[in-house]
Amino acid sequence: ESPRTVAKPAPEGRMATEPAPAAPVTSSPDALRDVTLRAEDGVSIAATYYPAPGKGVILLHSLGEDRDAWGDFAESLRDGGFAVIAIDFRGHGDSDLDWEDFSYPVGKTRETDNDFLGMVLDVKAARKHLNEQGKHATAIIGASIGANIATLYAETDPKVEHLVLLSPGMDYRGVQLPAGPLYDGTVLLVAGTDDRPAAEAIEKYASRIRGEHKTIQYPGGAHGIELLGKPDL
């Protein structure tokens, strides 16, 4: 069954005192670098950076996963020329805190302290690292709660031109999709038809996007990064 899509419009003899040229960026597997970032609120964030000559991409995983969940996908992007950084959200993987101890007071507003919303600061730290490598966070690919965080961050950074949202939800642990049409970049929204919260979310959020967007629903209940195994995605 096919997915349903909806689109809207030193050479020899060099003097010993002359500095050698900088080594070119390599795309070999050995080029990836595990790094530790520091979020604005002091939380330590683990990440892996995949150097490449092209534009920058940030990868944001699902709740309860970590940056390793992307598997070979990050390297595939790097091999395609993209400079990629995949992070462990706070409370996940090798980063500080424990997401199972996060809390979100019932009935409180989004301005209330919430470590899930603090994940936006983790994305800012990843953006800063890309900047230090001479790159911009041109695209963000997020899965599940990572998709929601991607939308919130993208509204604050005009350098983000593209979003790929895998199984976003209207509200994950107090992290809500933006209520207004603020983002004007291009967006790809993907969900499984049997993953009803995500399928409904991509339809509702699509109406809030000012820029070009496309939705794809694949038969079945695949969620988040699982969708990367779907044909042609």
Short description:
This protein has 233 residues and is α/β, with parallel strands linked by helices. It has helices at residues 73-79, 119-132, 145-154, 196-206; strands spanning 4-7, 33-38, 44-50, 56-60, 83-87, 137-143, 162-166, 171-172, 175-176, 186-192, 213-218. A hairpin with a 5-residue loop joins β2 (33-38) and β3 (44-50).
Question: How would you characterize this protein structure?
Answer:
With about 230 residues, the protein is of the alpha/beta class. The protein contains four helices and eleven strands; from the N terminus they run ββββαβαβαββββαβ. The protein has helices spanning about 75-80, 120-130, 145-155, 195-205; strands at about 5, 35-40, 45-50, 55-60, 85, 135-145, 160-165, 170, 175, 185-190, 215-220. It has a nine-stranded mixed β-sheet with strand order 1-11-10-7-6-4-5-3-2, sandwiched between helices. Strand 6 (about 135-145), helix 3 (about 145-155) and strand 7 form a beta-alpha-beta unit. Helix 2 crosses helix 3 (about 145-155). The protein is globular and about 35 Å long. Residues about 5-30 and about 110 have low confidence and may be disordered.
